[in-house]
Amino acid sequence: MAQMEPAGGEQGAGANPGLAALPALWVGVVILLSIWALSQAVLGTYSYGELPGSVTFLIYAGLVAGAINIVWGLVLVGLALGRSPRFPRQFIIWQVVNIAWIVLRTVYVLINPDFGLSAVPLVYAAVEIGIGVFLIRLMQNNAAASAYSDGGGARPSIVVSILAAFLGILLGGVVGAAAGFGGGVLYADLTDMSCFEGGCGYFAFFMGLFGIVIGAIAGGVLAVLLVNRRRLSPAAVSGVSH
To answer: Are 43 and 205 spatial neighbours (Cβ–Cβ below 8 Å)?
Structure first.
């Protein structure tokens, strides 16, 4: 009988699960920042009518970039939670696009006289670019990238499980909020719910909160289950069959 070999032995050699999980965690942070920016726009933080056209243009461009980041980021989170081998390459593409957007946005602000110069946004942009470059280099490292493999059978470390739970809660919360709020709006519209003193709006809002709770719990549990699943490698299966 052929001897059984540890699953994913060579591929995962030298991989640091904690470092390999950092790109997925950064995607989650960017999603949160994008959601915050969009929420500020929805709540009317910006008064577009009183701003110069160039400033309004940048705000709308930022909202579009934020929406794209949320959708694209959620796809990446799904790949990361499934430990897909596609994640490293897809993350690098996403990060390069984000760095390009940050550079273009910063240059636009610097050359446009309608914007006041401030060191804080420049430092913030530099930090974002620095983190992005570091994580790109990390994902170009074979040892770190090998942590994302849907063929591995080893149980991930507790660090990876905790980060997976965080990303699962994030993903589930976003999906739950969208489903809850959207469902609340649809129900209020179909039932002709009274909007007196914001009644229908409050209903949709609380349905969104309910969706966040349910989605976050379900997403966190599902994420932990996904990353902790054990599977035999092809070599191990072959060894058993002999």
So the answer is: no
Q: Which of 194, 188, 95 is nearest to 139 (CA)?
A: 95
Full domain range(s) for residue 28? 15-150
- E-assigned strands of the chain? none
Asked if residue 186 and residue 95 are part of one domain, the reply reads no
Q: At 48, is the pLDDT very low, low, confident or very high (cuts 50, 70, 90)?
A: low
**139 & 220 share domain:** no
Are 213 and 126 contained in the same domain? no
The pLDDT assigned to 44 comes to 55
Which of these three, 150, 167, 184, is where a domain ends?
150
Sequence-distant (6+) residues with CB within 8 A of 114 are 52, 54, 55
Say yes or no: 121 and 225 in one domain.
no
Range of weakest confidence among 32-41, 44-53, 122-131 = 44-53
For the whole model, what pTM was predicted? 0.64
- Residue 16: pLDDT band by 50, 70, 90 thresholds? low
Question: Cα(79)–Cα(86) distance, rounded to whole angstroms?
Answer: 7
